[in-house]
Description:
- This protein is of the alpha/beta class.
- The protein is 32% helix and 17% strand.
- The chain binds NADP nicotinamide-adenine-dinucleotide phosphate (NAP).
- Residues 58-60, 147, 153, 186-192, 194, 211-212, 332, 353, 381-384, 496, 502-503 line the site of NADP nicotinamide-adenine-dinucleotide phosphate (NAP).
Amino acid sequence: MQENKNSGFDYDTVVIGAGVCGIYQAYKLAEMGTRFLVLEQAADVGGTWYWNRYPGCRFDSESETYGYSFSEELLQEWDWSEHFAPREETERYLQHVVDKFDLRKHMRFNSRLKSAHWDPERSGWRIVTDDGQVYSTRFLLTAIGLLSTPTLPRYEGVESFEGLSFHTYHAPRDPVDFSGLRVAVVGTGATGVQLISEIADKVGSLTVFQRRPNWCAPLNNSSMTPKEMQEIKSQYNEIFDQCRNTPSGFYHDVDPRKTLDVAPEDREAFWEKLYSGSGFGVWLGNFKDILTDSDANAEFSKFVARKIRQRVKDPKVADKLVPKDHGFGTRRVPMETKYYEVYNQDNVLLVDIGDTPIERITPSGIRTSNKEYPFDIIIYATGFDAVTGAFDKIDFVGEDGLKLKDKWEDGPQTSFGLSVDGFPNLLTLAGPQSGSVATNFPRGIEEAVDWSSQFLGYLLDNDVGYFKAKKSAEEFWGQHVQKMSERILFAKEQSWFTGYNSNVDRKYRNRCLIYAGGQLRFREFLKVESLGGYPSFDLVSLDRQQSSSP
Ligand code: NAP
């Protein structure tokens, strides 16, 4: 690997973010021997797993499919304690990876990127952090997370509450003692559902403010025995192979049968098996048309509705927990552990704010249209300005003064979710519309990072000092992303997949934030790019740049 000739830059490459994606990118850049820096706004590595310290936080990926696949030694030395590991363990794992591969020396913490401006004279980026540090780099890579910009509700009085209140993303570092306290949780997405299940028996009273119910399904987590861990260690090749060959990067692959082609009793038996199985099988391992055909989806939704009604004793409460406005799996399925049973507890109250909207937050609690509820703690599990929110917080200015925020005003436009016309030498790892954002995250980002590293290697080896996505490639990708999302029922639903968030003003039209075509198709596109010499990009060599400069 050659170092860039006469670059005059502080770094060949700067990576923004030291979460799951940024860490792996750092590993690859260190292996390539380039000059690089990772800037991280937090005080340590971990990204999602650093910030989300709310009780009950864990991933819904089978633990052994969440680790990095690049080092056999790492795979063999790490033991997961549960089939779906809790946040603390994943954070420890990521710290271990960073220490093992001596990556910390390339990282600067407490460094939030404020701006990144394209410098046309030097063909690189000038970047500035919150604390006023300025860096120059030829290439800039973002690994800034999909769900890293939390959004509070815009109710009046949020600031006026005199008890403890926080968004789940900013949960206190020290565990909160909930005993005897009156606790409110606003929001019932994947986060709220984990939190509610975890704290319901630890609080004095719990009041859940639900706007729209979600279809939740059992995670069926359990401890990992040493024998199971041993077996996993002997099968990592097969495990990663299996994950590489499903659209989602999980174990689970769709059943090739169509729902209504299967006899009702066989269907029921299959669904019972899925419902009692662990992880996302119930969502991603279901009949092949569950997420594409409304009639098939309605049948399975009825099955899950029956389960909810069986599990919740009060029929009126059960009815409030059954979604009526969307079918199963057309928004992200929250995975739960005894979530529905929580509503059978005497100390838990469900407030349907579809019926009685929240009017304001008061100094002592929450006032709805029919009642004021006093609380000691209010926890907002109200979600994120997903996927593009983290980009909007940085002042990206590309060629001819173009601001990324303006370019993406109606929704993101990218080539493969990795590159943006008008923003040369920038790779948006796991950016909007990339295949990595709709998969088992580590599996997806390994794909993007491997491809990006190979691309960077090509640029450095060939003295290419400038690359940019072609406009035609971006237009093609936008249409393809839209086409893929329309084949799936979730394109019509309001969720973070489609850029919906009632707590931010921006409204994207016909723009899917994720790539619904699956990782197999995505991988094919990337492969064609590399084998074809990167036809979707304009590439300019350093020599040509130098000879054409005035
Ligand atoms: P989310 O899915 O966007 O859910 C936000 C919840 O807050 C929804 O119930 C929403 O109601 C409600 N809400 C938002 N604004 C509100 C307001 N102003 N008033 C009342 N309610 C409001 O966010 P999330 O639960 O944090 O999950 C986001 C994503 O993070 C997940 O989809 C998942 O990808 C990831 N996640 C993963 C894991 C895991 O791996 N296990 C765990 C947690 C989260 P509406 O539905 O009516 O909008």
